[in-house]
Amino acid sequence: MRIISFNCEGITNAAERGFFFWAQDQDADVICLQDIRARENDLIDAPFNPEGYFSYFFESYSLHSGQGGVALYTRIPPKAIITGLAIPDADNHGLYLQADFDKISIGTLLVPEADNSAESQNWKYKFMEEHLQYLGKQRRKRREFITCGSWHIAHKKIDLANWREYQESPGFQPAERAWMDEIMTGMDYVDTYREVDREGGKYSFWASDDHREANEGRRYDYQIATPSMKHRVLNSGIYAGETFSRHAPVIVDYDWELSF
Question: What is the number of structural domains in the chain?
């Protein structure tokens, strides 16, 4: 099973830059998109419904905020689609969409991005606190979960270029990293990319073209899975060969045959 996760920062812009042409060649079983910034009614035609995939969207009802909405494409029809987290503010921004298959659920998640304003950081922390409870509920269920998304947090020093300069900046604050620690260590979730690639200098987000050229980036995008998926990770990679948005697609192969 191959899963691609990608923060497109506007699905229309990513399409114009060739994302769907690239994705069609990757033979992915599931494609999870974040921050689509579009209404579902505007995504009826190609390329937003690629041939061979079932398409699902959860739009943001607050597009004036400039971001939001997620999408999920799958070759196998799911048993069920779950839209939202039952968290009103999060669901108003279309931050989570989940497909349930036999013995496994795959979700696409957009954690709010904070700037230096207290309002945006407080909104992000509020979401983090509520989502941690959701992840705890997942762990008590007898099935596997993979959450693909833009978490907008660089977890470790290895996940951020020039990390000493950014220790108090949004996306690398101690409380944000401690939250990731709780997910990975306290709840035993697995950062599947790191199960294969533990090298530094591998990032999925660059703030500008100049930062990308200098590879001064952050690894903001993860596929996080329940513990028993750890030994099913076969391969992982971040595709930076083309620029579809400021983020890069994260690709992980699992020893798992998707079925309904």
Answer: 1
